[in-house]
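Inverse folding, one chain.
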């Protein structure tokens, strides 16, 4: 006499309810992890696009610097620091929103560049800010300006009061923190 202790009859095939719940649970964890990573990589892609625009603006600034230097208009470079650098670009970025007088983060759509006519600074408002740390003003934007770099001239080993232009840099007003 044989005893069959199996719970399922030989005719039953397929998943039990517990197996189905475990599979759904594992899939939901995988999907949540994937979606979290997708958002993170989208934010990194936005940061990279912003940095590429900054590089293009720095190149345009170098061309402006060279143009003034070659023409002998080195003194005019101080005016460059107050100009809208987007005007030097061969082609404006698609996300350039224009010039505003004293903009606020709510007056410009996220993901856009804007030039502040009051402060004479170029501003980028990130669209994805989950890993972005705002600056001292607490606003989720990055303000850029043109820094004219001068160096005191040494004559006969003595540093005088005269200065000469050594460079122009397009840089953030304060360090950018994106973790």
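Residues assigned per position:
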């Amino acid at each position: 006499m044989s005893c069959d202790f199996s719970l399922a009859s030989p005719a039953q095939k397929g998943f039990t309810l517990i197996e189905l719940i475990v599979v759904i649970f594992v899939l939901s964890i995988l999907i949540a992890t994937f979606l979290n990573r997708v958002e993170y990589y989208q934010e990194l892609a936005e940061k990279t696009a912003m940095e590429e625009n900054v590089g293009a603006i720095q190149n345009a600034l170098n061309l402006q610097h060279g143009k003034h230097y070659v023409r002998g208009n080195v003194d005019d470079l101080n005016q460059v620091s107050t100009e809208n650098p987007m005007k030097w670009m061969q082609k404006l970025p698609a996300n350039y929103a224009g010039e505003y007088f004293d903009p606020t983060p709510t007056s410009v759509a996220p993901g856009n560049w804007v030039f502040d006519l009051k402060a004479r600074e170029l501003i980028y408002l990130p669209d994805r800010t989950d890993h972005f740390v705002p600056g001292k003003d607490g606003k989720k934007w990055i303000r850029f300006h043109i820094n004219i770099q001068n160096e005191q001239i040494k004559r006969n080993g003595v540093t005088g009061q005269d200065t000469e232009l050594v460079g122009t840099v397009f840089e953030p007003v304060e360090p950018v923190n994106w973790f």
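Residues 17-70 form the longest helix (54 residues). DSSP finds two helices and seven strands in the chain.
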